[in-house]
Amino acid sequence: MTTSIRKSKSSSTIDRRSFIRGAGVCLLLPHLECMTPVFARDKTERQPRRMLLISNNLGVLPKPFFPDTSGADYKLSPYLEELKAFRNDFTVFSGLSHPAVVGGHSTENCFLTAAKGPTKSGFRNQISLDQFAAEALGQQTRFPTLNLGVNIDKAKRSLSWTRDGALLPAEDSAAALFQKMFVQGSKRDIDRRLRELKLRGSILDAVSADTRKLGKRLSAPDRNRLDQYFTSIRELEQRLHIAGEWEHRPKPSATREPPTDINDKSRFFDKFQLMLSMAQLALQSDSTRLVTLMVDAFATPVFHVNENTKSINGYHNLSHHGQVPAKVQQLETVDRRQMRLIGELLANLANHQTRGKRLLDNTAVLYGSNMGDANTHDNRNLPILLAGGGFKHGQHLAFSGDDNAPLSNLFVSMLQWLGVEADAFGSSTGKLAGLEFVA
Amino acid sequence: MTGPRRSCIVATASALILFFASVSVRGDSQVVVRTFIKSTCIDCHQGEDAEAGLDLAQLAWKLETPGIRLRWIQIHDRIENGEMPPDADDLPDRDRQSLLSALSVAIHAADHAEVQVHGRGPMRRLNRGEYENNLADLLKMPKLDIRDKLPEDREGYHFNKTTEMLDISYLQLGAYLDAADSALRQAIASGTQPRQLIRYYALATKMFSPPTTYGGREAMFFAKNSTLLPLSGAELSKIRQKGNHDKDVELALFRSASWPFYGYPHGFICRSAGKYRVRFSARAVRQVRDFRLKPSPTPLPLTFRARAPSGPDVSGDVRSVGGVMDIQSAEAEYSTTVLLAKGQTFEYSLLGLPVPFPITSHGGPLYYDFPPMPAGGHPGIAFRWIEIVGPIDSEQWPPSSHRALFGDLPIRDSKNADGGLAIEVVSNQPAKDVSRLFRQFANRAARRPVPKSAFEIYEQLIFDQLDQGASFAEAMIAGYKAFLCSRHFLYLREPKQTTDHYAIAERLSHFLWNSRPDAPSLKYAREGNLRSATVIREETDRLIASPQFDRFVENFTDYWLNLKELRRDEPDIRLYPEYRLDDYLIESTLMETRAFFTAMVRENLPALVLVDADFAFVNDRLARHYDLPLVIGSAVRKVSLPKSSPYGGLIIQASILKVTGNGTTTSPVIRGAWIMDRIMGDPPPPPPAKVPAVEPDIRGAKTIRDLLALHTRSESCTGCHARFDPVGLALENFDIMGAWRDRYRSLASGEKITGIDRSGHQYVYYVAQPVQPEGRLLDGTTFQDIHELKSILASQPRKLARNLLHQFTTYATGTPVRFSDRPVIEAILDQCESAEFRTADLLHGLIGSRIFLGEPGLHVEPEK
What we know:
By secondary structure, chain A is an alpha/beta fold. Chain A is about 35% helix and about 10% strand. Chain A has 2 domains: about 1-35 and about 185-250, no CATH class; about 50-185 and about 255-420, Alkaline Phosphatase, subunit A.
């Protein structure tokens, strides 16, 4: 959208803010259509696209995870057998990693940011994939993103980071998330946020009034620069306006009972399962379209592997199995159970249909880890799986194990599918070769 | 193209311009140009199948249209460079000169006419570094850190200051609002009094949080009387619990701070962000057999790393703080200040020392071992005590940052506790105070007097906030914040009126300080003195001599030389085990290039030192790297080079040789093109699509020269590659970090070399094919090695100087050299020629020219 200063000047006879509100109805339709289930909408509109980004910060055993053969007719690996029912709904990748993101566990906060050298002097984290997408897409839902965690060390770890490298804490309480999504906030909180938005609106009003004064006296090249500036003021105002609308709108009603938090860290799988269901609920209710979930295996103490067995060590120590058969065997059990949880998630997303389309087809689900091999602190050859979304799946896309392709290339592909006009992210060199959109 | 040739042509052109009125010349020019085109060019460049899609019959003679003018400029330059017509005999030299003069005169007239109406370029948005520096200087907060809140700016012509790339979007505007808000709140007094000082003190046994470190006792131990004091974890806890530390114990550390490591004072955490003074007592030692300490023959550099105390796994920022201190072998007290964020601590970072290495046998349990002892023992530092005092607030209260916003208005404790400001500003006459404070602030922020009508808009915003019940300080913040996102603050202007000296002041300061002009510069602007040749010269010299000039050196070299990417590639430890995790080396190379460039300007060195010099800036690490006589200490200093040394000259500095490699291999194609582009000012055209890059073979079977032979065999490649490949060939004698090599290394063939690197890792690589650095330049000149190449490049000082002027022009004005600027550039070069094109002379020449100061006589109606 381009707006010339002169054009807008002609409308300055009517009150500016009311003009924006009035214009908002038509200008903002593409955003408003996304507010279902809050609003009714045209059935022909493109369905909203979503991302669910999951990382287990200790990863999985590489050998049983990666398939031996590649391409579309690859043979499922032992772990992927657990996802057999969805073979054509996911792509498994090998030979991906973030260049220069090394330093053992310190890489866990860089999984979605690709920020290099996380242990070096001068390191500062960068914007994460979810935040990058949220910035570009604007506020289409009540929450631009939701960050979830399992057993998470809240002060130190998150998948989600701001542009200036500040951690966006992940929520590990299902009850709190439920409250946030479905229970009306206090009037005081809403008023405070509205006041903040209003102040910002007034600031932009002043800046734009001051800008308009200059319009006529400028030479053509200067006017072009100023037009662009003026347009950015207008667009920011519109976005504030949408944010304000959300504050006024009632929250959706929940389709399930409020959950009860599990506080016992040793019930790792129960917690993981609960958080996956919260993620699913967030997407289903369109509370947000961007969810991150960090599974903090590193901070998980001795835990229930299944009903009868507890892990030999805490998860971290277990991951340094040193090829001790009992530990390797137990990790395999743990990894497989995790794969089954992902399978359940995919099944749930596939079963939830809107207008004949599976939620899975509108949701790109990324599952992976910053650890290629936790036993040796290897940050290369990361286990990565992408399910759902509008991609041509059913293949093992193998890149060189010696000379990995940047994981950020996959992120660029995902951003483009999501509708973000970006040709670069993190350390990308382009889109990921071999991964195509469904026509 | 050689320097003298272009200058001769341009000199002719300038002469012509002086003699003819532009309109009549344009008419005549078209006839001349069309005639030559018809006889020489049109055969190939006509119709749908025209070569390069250039249909000269259809190309309008509308030189006033920028797009069309650009096409004609390209035509002019290709003819001038002798690239067109392909067969030089088709256009005899005399005809060529006539055609070029006609083209040049007409293009110049059209381009200059545009400049005279609109100025050289449009207003330019501040980039994120400039935005931060402007706020830092405006608010008197030198350590302000908000740059990363803003999206990264796009680059054009290598720089992040190019007007056409500095777009703005709602994202950016929103980020500017957030950044301004954050800066303003940091500027305001944190309370009615400076914060209370907290003192932390630790003797050696409390100085290192964990009882041991990765690498075991050899990496860190406690000593008494220079011998090991074996303390178990339990014993150490007991000492700490009871607080009975022994002041005769030392903490001896022998490893670098690379992951995995955590070594910070036990129990210290920064509770309130700010500046902390750190004092400690230490000495440089060597660990010899059986954990004994002896004095080190050389000092050892130490710095601190600020970060969250999150154990070995780092979370969040890591910053070097406190500067580099050379710890001497006699025990002494050291003092520095560190900047800490809330929740951070800092760890001891010994520079240039090894990192213990992980051992797993057959994937078995992981443990860290320490490398074998080098001759003379493990270098390290023994600490006796440390004291940390802070946060250190300004002695004057409220601090100057607060006074920049609220002057001398009294402050009191805030009643509003929920996340707002800690203080309230008391105003008994808000109407008066708002106007007084805001106008003062706005005039400073805008770097010029702001028109009255603009004040009123922002003041209204502030009064509205007051009416709605906002506190005085919050209402002012709203107004300030709005102004910091306004065009007055956000945009730099082109000098478009002869009377506008403020535009000159801000251009000069953003050029040489990367920030706003200071009071003396603004005073000259107010008095209308900046067009005086003496004043602008003195101002330039003053800015160059000041400490803020470092910002120019850093930012300019970061972009011009791409030093911001210096750490992009890790050295490949399979081929170069000696560079494993050697951050000190990389940091030193950066210091060298910055010191060198600073000297070029401050010592007014000739432009040819870019390619050849008999001196270098080195410290202890670089002297070893360059195989020079050893020097002591971490600071870089100027040393003269022995005649036989291949070093000397910017293009043979380790930073440049690293940034033009990829960590594993070097490519003469990339290095050659890089030097032609950034140093010689002769950028190669982009490579044709779908041609794969030549990848060096690290298996060692083929040399890069064999692979490059492909270029010389293919005619379509050789045309361009002959211009830059040879330059890169001479640099093949330098490895990925810039160290000398006679033979390539490989992973598979050649003579096997095995050993243990300084971190204790075993390595195997092969010494393979010899480097063949000789080459032949496009003009037929041949060279045997780097020494000869340097002489060849150094024989083109005018070209080197012209390129510097081009780089300075884009950086300083946001608009690259325009066609109508070319005679100005040549005139500056003429002036500087007799003194060998010295760098500061070139800068002065540019700053005194109409390119920088704006068109004389230009007058676009100013705002009332």
